[in-house]
């Protein structure tokens, strides 16, 4: 009996792998001689190629943003709540492109890929990549797909940074920028959290200087700890309290320093364990460094208004009240700079208890606002 998907699902989807043979010069001074990007597309590109929307993923994201790879797949793509027929990013109207960024571990060229110069796995030898590098590779992807201008570039968190960078690097190629739960640069506290996560990985005895694959191991403990630290910052205190409180796994305290006694401990260990089975440690280091390095205003004497002076896109920014990792104040910095630069900008601060992860969740007011803005985009 054939699988019946929800009416608002894009259904079964298949990734595509695109090879790029032209070398890509990176901000770190190194060059990738060749690379591949894995993408998924949903909807149809119209005859004038004016209805294309680019989805930029966050730290642990990838190209599988909507639909299902298999009829028996338990969960759809990571942003299925927002992409599909009748959803905020309506695939009856838009041609949607989602990709796995360079340095990723879901098929695009990254640390787990073979180095053409040596024939060995890149490992720690994979060059450092930045948000700007990603945007340049995405521009080549757009060229390959015949898209001269995106109807919109959309992203949350690190994805929102990419959307913002698109308007700076390629102002003529973006009509609308949707930047959700993001920031113009990381705070010192955010950089500190990233460094703790990186040190958890680097100090794992199985890391082997980033060449763990050659040893036939993975720095599992380090990855688990990094994910646990990160996951705490993605949730609000209210969300964790409502979900777990101080609920025990058993009827009473064990008074055992090594036991898992609270439900929240069990949850974090599960999240860390699951993450360690699917994510590359070197990719985690790369992604967090890309977050740390993002600071487009640095090239303009830290003046964000001047940085955004030449952008052409219209903007929609959204933030969430309990997001302390990328607080509403950080989105307002971008809004204020855009207003000062006399750009068209809409802003919504959504009252939501879920913390930073709220941008991934089907919160009614969020989806209503998201849909309302996307419906205004002409194609």
UniProtKB/TrEMBL annotation:
Gene Ontology biological process terms in this record: homoserine metabolic process; methionine biosynthetic process
UniProt keyword annotation of Cytoplasm present: yes
A UniProt-annotated Pfam family: Abhydrolase_1
Active site: 157 (nucleophile), 323, 356
InterPro entries to which the protein is assigned, alphabetical: AB_hydrolase_1, AB_hydrolase_fold, HAT_MetX-like
Record key words, sorted: Acyltransferase, Amino-acid biosynthesis, Cytoplasm, Methionine biosynthesis, Transferase
EC number(s) on file: 2.3.1.46
The keyword Acyltransferase is assigned to this record: yes
Catalysis performed (reactions): L-homoserine + succinyl-CoA = O-succinyl-L-homoserine + CoA
Subcellular location: Cytoplasm
Transmembrane intervals: none
Domain AB hydrolase-1: start-end pairs: 51-360
Pathway in which the depicted protein is active: Amino-acid biosynthesis; L-methionine biosynthesis via de novo pathway; O-succinyl-L-homoserine from L-homoserine: step 1/1
Residues at which substrate binds: 227, 357
Important for acyl-CoA specificity, annotated site positions: 325
Cellular component per GO, a single term: cytoplasm
GO molecular function: homoserine O-acetyltransferase activity; homoserine O-succinyltransferase activity
Family: Belongs to the AB hydrolase superfamily. MetX family.
Subunit structure: Homodimer.
PANTHER family: HOMOSERINE O-ACETYLTRANSFERASE (PTHR32268:SF11)
Task performed by this protein: Transfers a succinyl group from succinyl-CoA to L-homoserine, forming succinyl-L-homoserine.
Entry protein name: Homoserine O-succinyltransferase
Species in which this protein is naturally found: Pseudomonas panipatensis
Gene behind the chain: metXS
